[in-house]
Amino acid sequence: MEEVYHIPAMLEPTLDGLQIREDGIYVDVTFGGGGHSRGIMERLGPNGRLYSFDQDADALRNAIDDPRWTFVHSNFRYLQNWMDYYGIRQVDGILADLGVSFHHFDSVERGFSFRFAAPLDMRLNQQQPTTAAQLLNTADEESLARVLYLYGELKNSRRLAERICRSRQTRPIETTDQLVSVLLRGGEPPMPMQTGTPIEVQPQQKKDLARAFQALRIELNDEMGALRELLLASRDLLAPGGRIAILTYHSLEDRLVKNFLRAGNIEGEIEKDFYGNVVSPFRLIEKGRTADADEVERNPRSRSAKLRVAARSASGVENH
Length: 320
Ligand SMILES: C[S@@+](CC[C@H](N)C(=O)[O-])C[C@H]1O[C@@H](n2cnc3c(N)ncnc32)[C@H](O)[C@@H]1O
What we know:
By secondary structure, this protein is α/β, with parallel strands linked by helices. About 35% of the residues lie in helices and about 20% in strands. S-adenosylmethionine binds near residues 8, 33, 53, 99 and 124.
Protein backbone atom coordinates (compact mmCIF):
# COMPACT_ATOMS: atom_id res chain seq x y z
CA MET A 1 0.00 0.00 0.00
CA GLU A 2 1.28 3.48 -0.82
CA GLU A 3 2.23 5.54 2.22
CA VAL A 4 -0.01 8.50 3.03
CA TYR A 5 2.56 11.26 3.47
CA HIS A 6 0.24 13.51 5.45
CA ILE A 7 -3.41 14.56 5.85
CA PRO A 8 -3.68 18.36 6.14
CA ALA A 9 -5.45 19.68 9.24
CA MET A 10 -8.31 22.19 8.93
CA LEU A 11 -7.72 22.58 5.22
CA GLU A 12 -10.82 24.62 4.30
CA PRO A 13 -10.79 27.02 7.29
CA THR A 14 -7.09 27.63 6.72
CA LEU A 15 -7.53 28.41 3.01
CA ASP A 16 -10.59 30.55 3.74
CA GLY A 17 -8.62 32.41 6.41
CA LEU A 18 -5.92 33.26 3.89
CA GLN A 19 -8.56 34.86 1.61
CA ILE A 20 -6.50 33.99 -1.42
CA ARG A 21 -6.27 36.58 -4.17
CA GLU A 22 -6.03 35.08 -7.65
CA ASP A 23 -2.94 37.03 -8.62
CA GLY A 24 -1.34 37.09 -5.19
CA ILE A 25 2.05 35.88 -4.01
CA TYR A 26 1.83 33.26 -1.25
CA VAL A 27 4.27 31.36 0.92
CA ASP A 28 3.58 27.99 2.55
CA VAL A 29 6.55 27.63 4.90
CA THR A 30 5.76 24.00 5.83
CA PHE A 31 5.12 22.13 2.58
CA GLY A 32 5.17 18.53 3.95
CA GLY A 33 2.74 16.41 1.94
CA GLY A 34 1.66 19.53 0.04
CA GLY A 35 -2.04 19.32 0.96
CA HIS A 36 -2.31 22.96 1.93
CA SER A 37 -0.07 24.07 -0.94
CA ARG A 38 -2.26 22.26 -3.48
CA GLY A 39 -5.31 23.95 -1.97
CA ILE A 40 -3.66 27.35 -2.42
CA MET A 41 -2.70 26.53 -6.03
CA GLU A 42 -6.32 25.67 -6.83
CA ARG A 43 -7.40 29.13 -5.72
CA LEU A 44 -4.67 31.01 -7.60
CA GLY A 45 -5.11 32.36 -11.12
CA PRO A 46 -2.52 32.17 -13.91
CA ASN A 47 -0.52 35.08 -12.47
CA GLY A 48 -0.52 33.89 -8.87
CA ARG A 49 2.64 32.49 -7.29
CA LEU A 50 3.33 30.07 -4.46
CA TYR A 51 6.66 29.46 -2.74
CA SER A 52 6.69 26.35 -0.55
CA PHE A 53 9.41 25.74 2.03
CA ASP A 54 10.45 22.54 3.75
CA GLN A 55 13.73 21.79 5.43
CA ASP A 56 13.20 18.08 4.87
CA ALA A 57 14.22 16.93 1.39
CA ASP A 58 11.71 14.03 1.63
CA ALA A 59 8.93 16.59 1.05
CA LEU A 60 10.12 17.01 -2.53
CA ARG A 61 8.46 13.68 -3.32
CA ASN A 62 5.22 15.63 -3.28
CA ALA A 63 6.45 18.29 -5.71
CA ILE A 64 3.78 20.17 -7.67
CA ASP A 65 4.36 20.24 -11.41
CA ASP A 66 3.30 23.80 -12.15
CA PRO A 67 5.28 26.85 -13.35
CA ARG A 68 3.55 29.01 -10.72
CA TRP A 69 5.10 26.91 -7.94
CA THR A 70 8.60 27.05 -6.42
CA PHE A 71 10.03 24.70 -3.80
CA VAL A 72 12.54 26.13 -1.34
CA HIS A 73 14.53 23.46 0.46
CA SER A 74 15.32 25.44 3.57
CA ASN A 75 14.44 26.14 7.15
CA PHE A 76 11.70 28.78 7.21
CA ARG A 77 13.79 30.87 9.60
CA TYR A 78 15.52 32.15 6.43
CA LEU A 79 12.23 33.29 4.85
CA GLN A 80 13.34 36.91 4.52
CA ASN A 81 16.67 35.98 2.87
CA TRP A 82 14.90 33.77 0.34
CA MET A 83 12.35 36.41 -0.53
CA ASP A 84 15.21 38.88 -1.04
CA TYR A 85 16.88 36.29 -3.27
CA TYR A 86 13.73 35.99 -5.41
CA GLY A 87 13.33 39.78 -5.51
CA ILE A 88 10.02 39.74 -3.61
CA ARG A 89 9.40 42.67 -1.28
CA GLN A 90 5.90 41.82 -0.09
CA VAL A 91 3.62 38.79 -0.07
CA ASP A 92 -0.15 38.45 0.21
CA GLY A 93 -0.25 35.50 2.52
CA ILE A 94 1.88 33.23 4.67
CA LEU A 95 0.87 29.81 5.94
CA ALA A 96 2.67 27.79 8.61
CA ASP A 97 1.43 24.33 9.65
CA LEU A 98 4.02 23.68 12.34
CA GLY A 99 5.76 20.56 13.57
CA VAL A 100 6.12 17.23 11.81
CA SER A 101 4.06 15.27 9.30
CA PHE A 102 2.68 11.71 9.47
CA HIS A 103 5.59 10.78 7.24
CA HIS A 104 8.04 11.55 10.04
CA PHE A 105 6.31 9.25 12.52
CA ASP A 106 5.83 6.57 9.87
CA SER A 107 9.49 6.64 8.79
CA VAL A 108 10.56 4.38 11.64
CA GLU A 109 14.30 4.68 10.95
CA ARG A 110 14.21 8.43 11.61
CA GLY A 111 13.52 7.89 15.30
CA PHE A 112 10.55 10.23 15.88
CA SER A 113 8.23 7.54 17.23
CA PHE A 114 8.34 5.67 20.54
CA ARG A 115 6.35 2.81 18.97
CA PHE A 116 9.24 1.18 17.10
CA ALA A 117 12.90 0.61 17.83
CA ALA A 118 15.23 2.87 15.81
CA PRO A 119 18.32 5.03 16.20
CA LEU A 120 17.45 8.26 18.04
CA ASP A 121 17.86 10.61 15.09
CA MET A 122 14.90 13.06 14.99
CA ARG A 123 16.56 15.56 12.64
CA LEU A 124 14.09 17.38 10.42
CA ASN A 125 16.98 18.58 8.31
CA GLN A 126 19.03 15.50 7.64
CA GLN A 127 22.07 17.60 6.79
CA GLN A 128 22.22 18.91 10.34
CA PRO A 129 25.15 17.25 12.16
CA THR A 130 23.64 16.71 15.66
CA THR A 131 21.15 13.91 16.33
CA ALA A 132 18.77 13.43 19.27
CA ALA A 133 21.08 10.71 20.65
CA GLN A 134 23.98 13.16 20.75
CA LEU A 135 21.84 15.77 22.45
CA LEU A 136 20.53 13.27 25.00
CA ASN A 137 23.98 11.96 25.90
CA THR A 138 25.69 15.32 26.26
CA ALA A 139 23.15 17.82 27.66
CA ASP A 140 23.41 18.52 31.40
CA GLU A 141 20.66 17.42 33.74
CA GLU A 142 19.31 20.91 34.32
CA SER A 143 18.91 21.57 30.56
CA LEU A 144 17.23 18.20 30.00
CA ALA A 145 14.77 18.88 32.83
CA ARG A 146 13.99 22.31 31.34
CA VAL A 147 13.41 20.88 27.86
CA LEU A 148 11.11 18.12 29.16
CA TYR A 149 9.18 20.60 31.26
CA LEU A 150 8.84 23.41 28.73
CA TYR A 151 8.38 21.50 25.48
CA GLY A 152 6.79 18.34 26.86
CA GLU A 153 4.85 19.88 29.76
CA LEU A 154 5.98 16.93 31.87
CA LYS A 155 5.51 17.59 35.56
CA ASN A 156 8.04 14.91 36.54
CA SER A 157 10.69 16.41 34.23
CA ARG A 158 13.35 16.53 36.96
CA ARG A 159 12.98 12.87 37.79
CA LEU A 160 13.12 11.92 34.11
CA ALA A 161 16.22 14.06 33.52
CA GLU A 162 17.90 12.44 36.51
CA ARG A 163 17.07 8.97 35.16
CA ILE A 164 18.54 9.84 31.77
CA CYS A 165 21.75 11.22 33.26
CA ARG A 166 22.24 8.29 35.62
CA SER A 167 21.46 5.70 32.93
CA ARG A 168 23.82 7.12 30.34
CA GLN A 169 26.75 6.76 32.73
CA THR A 170 26.63 3.01 32.20
CA ARG A 171 25.91 3.02 28.45
CA PRO A 172 24.94 5.77 25.99
CA ILE A 173 21.25 5.96 25.06
CA GLU A 174 21.35 5.51 21.29
CA THR A 175 17.90 4.20 20.33
CA THR A 176 14.20 4.90 20.84
CA ASP A 177 13.70 1.59 22.68
CA GLN A 178 16.53 2.36 25.10
CA LEU A 179 15.07 5.80 25.76
CA VAL A 180 11.60 4.35 26.40
CA SER A 181 13.08 1.89 28.91
CA VAL A 182 15.07 4.62 30.69
CA LEU A 183 12.09 7.00 30.86
CA LEU A 184 9.77 4.31 32.20
CA ARG A 185 12.07 2.40 34.52
CA GLY A 186 15.43 4.14 34.85
CA GLY A 187 18.47 1.91 35.41
CA GLU A 188 20.99 0.73 32.87
CA PRO A 189 19.80 1.14 29.25
CA PRO A 190 19.07 -2.32 27.77
CA MET A 191 20.91 -3.50 24.66
CA PRO A 192 19.32 -1.82 21.59
CA MET A 193 16.64 -3.77 19.74
CA GLN A 194 16.70 -4.26 16.00
CA THR A 195 15.31 -1.27 14.07
CA GLY A 196 11.61 -1.73 13.37
CA THR A 197 10.89 -3.97 16.38
CA PRO A 198 7.63 -2.83 18.02
CA ILE A 199 8.15 -1.37 21.53
CA GLU A 200 5.64 -2.60 24.08
CA VAL A 201 4.20 0.05 26.37
CA GLN A 202 1.03 0.28 28.46
CA PRO A 203 -1.73 2.49 27.03
CA GLN A 204 -1.51 4.85 30.02
CA GLN A 205 2.22 5.40 29.38
CA LYS A 206 1.77 6.61 25.81
CA LYS A 207 0.87 10.22 26.51
CA ASP A 208 3.95 11.01 28.57
CA LEU A 209 6.24 9.14 26.17
CA ALA A 210 4.80 11.12 23.27
CA ARG A 211 5.46 14.32 25.22
CA ALA A 212 9.04 13.39 26.08
CA PHE A 213 9.79 12.53 22.45
CA GLN A 214 8.13 15.74 21.30
CA ALA A 215 10.22 17.78 23.75
CA LEU A 216 13.46 16.28 22.50
CA ARG A 217 12.46 16.89 18.87
CA ILE A 218 11.57 20.54 19.50
CA GLU A 219 14.87 21.19 21.25
CA LEU A 220 17.00 19.34 18.69
CA ASN A 221 15.45 21.18 15.75
CA ASP A 222 15.29 24.54 17.56
CA GLU A 223 11.63 24.75 16.58
CA MET A 224 10.85 27.66 18.90
CA GLY A 225 13.83 29.70 17.67
CA ALA A 226 12.83 29.14 14.04
CA LEU A 227 9.22 30.11 14.81
CA ARG A 228 10.30 33.39 16.45
CA GLU A 229 12.35 34.31 13.39
CA LEU A 230 9.48 33.35 11.08
CA LEU A 231 7.02 35.56 12.97
CA LEU A 232 9.29 38.60 12.79
CA ALA A 233 9.97 38.10 9.09
CA SER A 234 6.24 37.64 8.39
CA ARG A 235 5.35 40.93 10.04
CA ASP A 236 7.76 42.73 7.74
CA LEU A 237 6.92 40.81 4.57
CA LEU A 238 3.13 40.85 4.61
CA ALA A 239 1.53 43.43 2.35
CA PRO A 240 -1.17 45.65 3.92
CA GLY A 241 -4.31 43.48 4.08
CA GLY A 242 -2.17 40.33 3.64
CA ARG A 243 -3.04 37.33 5.77
CA ILE A 244 -1.06 35.01 7.99
CA ALA A 245 -2.47 31.61 9.02
CA ILE A 246 -0.67 29.45 11.56
CA LEU A 247 -1.56 25.96 12.79
CA THR A 248 0.07 25.12 16.13
CA TYR A 249 0.22 21.77 17.93
CA HIS A 250 1.35 22.41 21.49
CA SER A 251 0.73 25.09 24.06
CA LEU A 252 4.11 26.82 24.14
CA GLU A 253 4.07 27.22 20.36
CA ASP A 254 0.48 28.41 20.48
CA ARG A 255 1.16 30.94 23.24
CA LEU A 256 4.01 32.47 21.26
CA VAL A 257 1.86 32.80 18.11
CA LYS A 258 -1.13 34.13 20.05
CA ASN A 259 0.91 36.80 21.83
CA PHE A 260 2.74 37.78 18.68
CA LEU A 261 -0.43 38.24 16.66
CA ARG A 262 -2.04 40.23 19.47
CA ALA A 263 0.91 42.49 20.18
CA GLY A 264 3.06 42.40 17.04
CA ASN A 265 6.20 41.57 19.00
CA ILE A 266 7.85 38.43 20.38
CA GLU A 267 7.63 39.56 23.98
CA GLY A 268 3.84 39.85 23.63
CA GLU A 269 4.07 43.36 25.11
CA ILE A 270 0.82 45.10 24.37
CA GLU A 271 0.93 48.72 23.33
CA LYS A 272 -2.13 50.83 24.02
CA ASP A 273 -3.24 54.11 22.54
CA PHE A 274 -4.49 57.17 24.41
CA TYR A 275 -7.94 55.60 24.76
CA GLY A 276 -6.65 52.28 26.09
CA ASN A 277 -7.17 50.33 22.85
CA VAL A 278 -4.61 47.67 21.98
CA VAL A 279 -2.44 48.84 19.09
CA SER A 280 -1.02 46.08 16.90
CA PRO A 281 0.16 45.58 13.31
CA PHE A 282 -2.37 42.73 13.01
CA ARG A 283 -6.13 42.38 13.02
CA LEU A 284 -7.18 39.04 14.50
CA ILE A 285 -9.43 36.85 12.35
CA GLU A 286 -9.28 33.34 13.87
CA LYS A 287 -8.32 33.14 17.53
CA GLY A 288 -7.45 29.50 18.09
CA ARG A 289 -10.05 27.56 16.13
CA THR A 290 -9.94 23.77 16.58
CA ALA A 291 -10.93 20.94 14.26
CA ASP A 292 -14.57 19.88 14.40
CA ALA A 293 -15.63 16.45 15.68
CA ASP A 294 -15.98 14.99 12.16
CA GLU A 295 -12.45 15.93 11.24
CA VAL A 296 -11.01 14.60 14.51
CA GLU A 297 -12.76 11.31 13.82
CA ARG A 298 -11.36 11.11 10.29
CA ASN A 299 -7.92 12.38 11.28
CA PRO A 300 -7.23 11.94 15.02
CA ARG A 301 -3.94 13.82 14.73
CA SER A 302 -5.90 17.01 13.99
CA ARG A 303 -7.13 16.95 17.60
CA SER A 304 -4.30 19.09 18.94
CA ALA A 305 -4.28 21.60 16.04
CA LYS A 306 -5.17 25.25 16.68
CA LEU A 307 -5.67 27.70 13.85
CA ARG A 308 -4.82 31.37 14.25
CA VAL A 309 -5.31 33.84 11.40
CA ALA A 310 -4.56 37.56 11.28
CA ALA A 311 -4.53 40.32 8.67
CA ARG A 312 -1.69 42.84 8.38
CA SER A 313 -3.28 46.18 8.96
CA ALA A 314 -3.18 48.74 6.19
CA SER A 315 -2.15 51.65 8.40
CA GLY A 316 0.59 49.69 10.10
CA VAL A 317 -1.35 49.57 13.36
CA GLU A 318 -4.71 48.13 14.33
CA ASN A 319 -6.85 48.74 17.38
CA HIS A 320 -8.42 45.74 19.05
C1 LIG B 1 2.65 19.45 9.76
S1 LIG B 1 3.72 19.25 8.40
C2 LIG B 1 2.98 20.21 7.15
C3 LIG B 1 1.95 19.47 6.38
C4 LIG B 1 1.39 20.22 5.20
N1 LIG B 1 0.65 21.38 5.58
C5 LIG B 1 0.53 19.31 4.35
O1 LIG B 1 -0.60 19.71 3.99
O2 LIG B 1 0.96 18.21 4.02
C6 LIG B 1 5.10 20.24 8.81
C7 LIG B 1 6.21 20.23 7.77
O3 LIG B 1 7.02 21.36 8.01
C8 LIG B 1 8.38 21.02 7.95
N2 LIG B 1 9.07 21.91 8.87
C9 LIG B 1 8.99 21.96 10.22
N3 LIG B 1 9.73 22.95 10.71
C10 LIG B 1 10.30 23.57 9.65
C11 LIG B 1 11.18 24.68 9.51
N4 LIG B 1 11.65 25.35 10.57
N5 LIG B 1 11.56 25.05 8.26
C12 LIG B 1 11.09 24.38 7.17
N6 LIG B 1 10.28 23.32 7.23
C13 LIG B 1 9.87 22.92 8.46
C14 LIG B 1 8.44 19.57 8.35
O4 LIG B 1 9.56 18.96 7.73
C15 LIG B 1 7.12 19.03 7.82
O5 LIG B 1 7.26 18.49 6.54
